[in-house]
Design goal:
The N terminus and C terminus are likely disordered. With about 650 residues, the chain is of the alpha+beta class. It has four domains: about 250 residues, no CATH class; about 90 residues, Calcium-transporting ATPase, cytoplasmic transduction domain A, CATH 2.70.150; about 130 residues, HAD superfamily/HAD-like (Rossmann fold), CATH 3.40.50.1000; about 110 residues, Calcium-transporting ATPase, cytoplasmic domain N (3-Layer(aba) Sandwich), CATH 3.40.1110.10. Strand 23, helix 19 and strand 24 form a beta-alpha-beta unit.
Length: about 650
């Protein structure tokens, strides 16, 4: 496990590189019980006197049984009947009628099962907790140009650090200077290094290559993305899925029923003339095989393993309940701006370089979003941004200035036929006829339009493929719900292949869309990024936030790090796989319990076989759930092959 607080970095508490099983006390006690059983059983087998094997088997009973017995007694004090206590009582009952070796076998298998359960839980935690090891313990802080070696956990927001090529980034931050390729697969799941330059965001634990970065810290170590992953998995471990809650509700009554039935199975045959040993042996065997250990373990291990698997790929699932719900999602509602699109205007197409350079020179002093898009496009193409003189920004008209002696105006194009294509105000209307805004670059001395730039909130490159994959996994087609005007929404939907478009929506209208789908019996997932999406995210069965504002993240059940939409279909598949695993575990455990109980009641079930069947089923369901720590070979979170799990 890891220790997290608000002031320091998440610090792994794991011991140095020892096997996980060796580090677990449950495993050490189980190993001692197994060793004692092996020695004691061998002595019994060769016919050694009781005084030689008796103390050895007593060590087996104590080593494997003291902890479940103690926990069971504590539960009794709280007026709860723990199934662990039933196992210990059954083992002691077997010893009392002379079945010492069989009772010891029960203790050994029960202790081994407990050790494997502890290992499965710890393995799930370590799979995400190990991510914390990627964050370096030390950092190079820059203060007035002087380098200083400090603890990464001591870095404060606003401080500046130097990240050299090959170094891990010590804290979440914004790049102030430099450029590098950053491997952030451990955080966002992106398979290839991501270029980072001035203004780019970097995460603690990611690795820079090909260049050095100067980074300003934006989050304390305890609030970094990597620490948040561990925190969310720990929160998930503290939650219980609805299936688990139902089982635990039934468990107490079931356990009491097992005790009552055990007493009846002992007393009735005894009253009908059976020997004490035979009646007690049958009763102890029944108590063992009827105990619901495997049923209790059927749900949480697979769900928590799936939560950990998703966390390693930049999909932060808040709880086991959410993972269970993901497996039932059959309708998806998608926001447009910032979710399916990049969320910022960009120059699209192939603009004339000279026209773009003139527009960028004028827009260099503008604060308008469309102006920033023009300037960014020029810089992306390596153009030199020339000086502008006599700059004027006229609200409702546009911007103008003198570039190399020419008066240049930049403004929205009027595309209506018969209307002069004069300089119009940038952003005079938040929407155009479709998803694209046309901007004219005009020579004001001659009145001639030199060229037109197309600016749009571009689709994410993986949006169409992700929408198609989501459509293949849901009972109803995806719904595009946006506050944009209908014309712009439909233009975008046509490019995505989305037929159901809901436009001109206020936040409460988006929530109404979700409630309408739920009223039709659908399990709804909502994907959004803005504050206006928060009500719909909170009202959905599963809300997925694409980063976005703090309120959005708080309202969401799943936080998607990075911009890769292809991971969403993969996550739905993972949820379904977890759900199927839970059902398979419950079916397996229930079948074995019913079969063993029937055998014991109708025939004569040997105690050793009952022990092996009961504890074996417990081990099987735990290990089956652990498989969800890894992805299926037929799926990958980068979207290359997500057709089946």
């Amino acid at each position: 496990m890891t220790v997290l607080d608000d002031r320091t970095a998440a610090v792994p508490t794991r011991s140095p590189r020892r096997s996980l099983l060796v580090r677990l006390p449950e495993a050490r006690w189980a190993a001692l019980a197994l060793a004692a059983f092996a020695v004691g059983g061998l002595l019994v087998l060769v016919g050694a006197p009781a005084w030689t094997w008796g103390p050895v088997l007593a060590v087996c009973y104590v080593a494997g049984g003291w902890e479940p017995a103690l926990e069971g007694l504590r539960a009794l004090r709280g007026r709860r009947l723990d199934v662990d206590l039933l196992m210990v009582v059954a083992a002691l009952g077997a010893a009392a009628i002379g079945q010492v070796v069989d009772g010891a076998l029960l203790i050994v298998i029960f202790a081994t099962s407990g050790a494997l359960e502890a290992w499965a839980t710890a393995r799930t935690e370590e799979s995400v907790g190990g991510l914390l090891d990627l964050a370096p313990a030390r950092a190079t802080r820059l203060a007035d140009g002087v380098e200083e070696d400090v603890r990464a956990g001591d870095l404060a927001v606003g401080e500046v650090v130097l990240v050299r090529p090959g170094d891990a980034v010590p804290a979440d931050g914004i790049v102030l200077d430099g450029a590098a390729e950053v491997d952030q697969a451990s955080i966002t799941g992106e398979p290839l290094p991501v270029p980072k330059a001035v203004g780019g965001e970097v995460y603690a634990g990611t690795v820079a290559a090909g260049g050095a970065l100067t980074v300003r810290v934006v989050r304390p170590a305890g609030e970094s993305v990597v620490a948040r992953i561990a925190e969310l998995v720990e929160e998930a471990a503290r939650t219980k899925a609805r299936t688990q809650l139902f089982i635990e509700t039934v468990e107490q009554r079931y356990s009491i029923g097992v005790v009552v039935a055990t007493l009846a199975i002992f007393a009735v045959p005894l009253g009908l003339g059976a020997t004490l040993d035979d009646a007690l042996l049958r009763a102890m065997t029944f108590m063992i095989v009827a105990s619901p250990c495997a049923l209790v373990l059927a749900t949480m291990p697979p769900l928590l393993a799936a939560v950990a698997n998703a966390g390693r790929r930049g999909l932060l699932v808040r709880s086991a309940q959410v993972m269970e719900q993901l497996g039932a999602v059959d309708a998806v509602v998608l926001d447009k701006t910032g979710t399916l699109t990049v969320g910022a205007p960009r120059v699209v197409g192939d603009p004339d370089v000279d026209v773009l350079a003139l527009a960028a020179a004028v827009e260099a002093r503008s604060e308008h979003p469309l102006g920033r898009a023009v300037l960014a496009a020029a810089r992306d193409r390596g153009l030199v941004v020339r000086e502008v003189a006599d700059f004027v920004a006229e609200p409702g008209v546009g911007v103008r200035g003198t570039v190399d002696g020419r008066r240049i105006g930049v403004g929205r194009s009027d595309r209506r036929e018969g209307t002069p294509r004069a300089t119009r105000a940038l952003g005079s209307s938040p929407h155009d006829d479709d998803a694209t805004t046309l901007v004219d670059v005009t020579d004001l001395d001659t009145g001639r339009v030199l060229g037109t730039l197309a600016i749009a909130d571009a689709l994410r490159p993986d949006a169409a493929a992700a929408v198609a994959d989501l459509a293949a996994r849901t009972a109803v087609p995806p719904v595009l719900a946006t506050g944009d005007r209908a014309e712009a929404a439909r233009a975008m939907a046509d490019r995505l292949g989305v037929a159901d478009v809901r436009a001109d929506l206020l936040p409460e209208d988006k929530l109404a869309v979700v409630e309408g789908l739920r009223a039709d019996g659908r399990t709804v997932a909502v994907v959004g990024d803005g504050v206006n999406d928060a009500p719909a995210l909170a009202g959905a069965d599963v809300g997925m936030a694409m980063g976005g504002a703090e309120l959005t993240v708080r309202a969401a059940d799943v936080v998607v790090l990075g911009d890769d939409l292809r991971r969403l279909p993969w996550l739905l598949d993972l949820g379904r796989r977890a759900r199927r695993t839970v059902i398979a575990n419950l079916a397996l455990a229930g079948t074995i319990v019913v079969g063993l109980v029937a055998w014991d009641l109708v025939g004569h079930l040997p105690l050793a076989l009952g022990v092996a069947g009961h504890e074996g089923s417990t081990i099987l369901v735990a290990l089956n759930g652990l498989r969800l720590l890894r992805s299926s070979r037929r799926s990958s979170p980068d979207g290359r092959s997500v057709a089946r799990l």
